[in-house]
Amino acid sequence: MKHFLLSFLLAVALMLGGMTSSSGQSTKTTYDFSTAALLTNTGTWYTQADITIDGTAYRLTCGGNGSFSNVSTGGAANSACLQKDGAGGDSFTLQRADGQPFQFYGIWVKHKSMNSYSTLPGVTLPPWYTLTASTFSYQDNTPMTSGTNWDNYTGSEIAISAGTDGVTTTSVAINFPAILNFWIDDIIVGPIPPSLSTITTQAVSGISTTTATGNGNITDLGSPNPTQHGVVWSTSSNPTVALTTKTEEGAANATGAFSTSITGLTANTTYYVRAYATNTQGTSYGNEVSFITTLVPLETEFFEDEIAGTTAFTNNGFTFDITGGKLEIANTPGWGWSGNSPDNFYVDNNNNLLSGPGVVGSFKIQAATFVAKDLYVFPSNDGFDVSNAGDVIMRGKLGGSTQFTQTLARSLSDFPFSNLGQFLF
Is the pLDDT of residue 6 over 50? Predict the structure, then answer.
């Protein structure tokens, strides 16, 4: 019974040892090859070695003209390691099997290189190899031993360190120009430290009266990847995601530019925009850009399509109310004015004649915020009294505050009876 139980426990231990955690690497870990790498013949040679470090799969590769092998000695402190036999130029790479970035802290490297390669055109020795990992690099400049015959060699071994904090990378690469053998041991890697994303804001495009296109670029995903990104906007500077005026494009799994639709804007208004990306470390923002929505296209109201006797009309999406002075839309053929010739419809104070000395009349055309450009005014020939003189005044108000005033100090006799309109701006 004890023998059976021991065998069962051993089997479970072996099975668990071969499993790969789906949660990924959680801490800085050293892989010392006490567990041999899984070697794969990719053609003629075993140039692929797979290892698992704290639940995360890593892949080691090399050039041809020789194979990887697991050896029990020769590594750091003469321990187990990964050996590569070759002859000439060779390479080594370390990557996560899924291609995702990781934090690289260090690696132990030993080599035996051929001095004779220093006599070849274009080859300078040392360096005997160059290691690169993102912004980190290292060169082995061990002095060459004497002799340049085929059996003269130079070797070294060193634990290379990328610093206390390591470096974030997707690949560690070593290039050997004159290798005979190299050995790899004590690979030190870990997960990327948590960090905010990095994002920039580009100029807004496709600007209209009520919509625009926001543009951003995630240049660094940070760690972990963003769970949300987009742009946020406001009529005040430095908008944040606390506002409801933002787009939500969802999670981001790759760096790069993106565009998103900005809606619900007001015409002729300045807006401030920032791209953003949010992960577990917080929200990062891009630089601020601003833009102005376009004006609503101007249209001319001739009243020819309106209904006589009414005191409201619509144009360009606005509803206008005519108030004061008991004015209304009238229809008398040839009594209106198009700006170039008589027409039929116009706003009239019919049955509310303004005549006699000192008589002043006024009326309003009002709606939601709009732009006024031109207004034609002319006196009717009904009750026409050229002895009167007076000003015609047009005022534009916004929220009860006067924005502009235009005055024409003209006698009624200045208005030709032929209904040639007077232009006001």
Answer: no
